[in-house]
Give the backbone structure.
Amino acid sequence: MNLKQHWYKWVAAVFLLYVVLGGLFLPLKPGITGLTPVKIVSGGVQTLKINVYNAPWLKENAFKDQEIGQGKFQIPSKVILVAKGAPGRWETQKIKFSGDHGQLLADMDFTMGNAKVSNEYYSVFIELSNGKYLGLPDAIYLERAAGDTAGTTAYISKSSAHVNSDREIFEMSFPNRMVLNESVRNLFYHVPMWFAMLALLGMGCWYAIKYLRFGQLEDDLFADSLVRVGIVAGILGCVTGATWARVTWQSWWPAADPKLNGVAIGMTMYFAYLLLRSTLQDPFQRARITAVYSVFIFPIFIALIVIMPKLSPNSLHPGSGGTVGFNKYDLDSTMRLFFYPAVIGWIALYYWIANLRFRIAKLKENKLNA
């Protein structure tokens, strides 16, 4: 096999094997997945139940383990609640093991007294013995009780700048992410599917332009193969996306999301491409008409799924409609080690498939002309 000619096959095989093995079997690091109660009325001591995922120190005997202080476990040292822009915080150093797997108990005194503390949402942090934090933003709402207006306060009135929403101080690298949790692994499948779809449809548009310029049927056959495989990548992107949406948004297809609506319209245009091509018998007429159609719909498709969602005020997808993108903080350095190879690997795999389909189509065309 000519390695220079078939390099994309090796790229697809090696990169996707790396992504599948690492992306599926690399264990999750600890992260807070939930907190109860989600609303507290001030005026006394409350017990917070904090659910923590995949933490080795959440064992009944972990707090008694002699090796904890030697670094075997990064155990929790305190629980802290911080509001955005607040001058102080609530905290406790009394943390108990609940007896349930993955749950900690923290007793906190929420007496406000005469402190100037407003009703608002607080983020919860677990400070670990290595100086880092597990965090969950806006996890609990604290409301002042009518009778809690005088006397002592448990509120710590001091700077809390060292506890903020900067994910870099979290012990939450690959692949644990708030809300997503285990489903974050789908980042290596769903998103690269869309990259592969756009890459193949873009190449199909390019070869359609080549046909219109030079009139070579081989360019038309290759453009058609790229578009068809690109449509398959788009369908798989919809399937993996719907699965992800069901986990994170509790809906297979949120009807109000502009990117999903754009995808539906765009895929319908490409299904119409397939229908149009099947109705034309003359190869030159078919090549000319579908090439013009392909060149016409590709920029419209890009506008529907890339540009319009960014302009919309209510998109659910990261990086669209005011939402924070993965490139902000959700994609840490460990995830990048798998995400970028996944993008390259899936594009190479689909290009390989398109190339095989082109060769088959070329053989059929030569047989008809023989």
In short: Confidence is low (pLDDT under 50) at residues 64-72, 164-173. The CA atoms of residues 245 and 251 lie 6 Å apart.
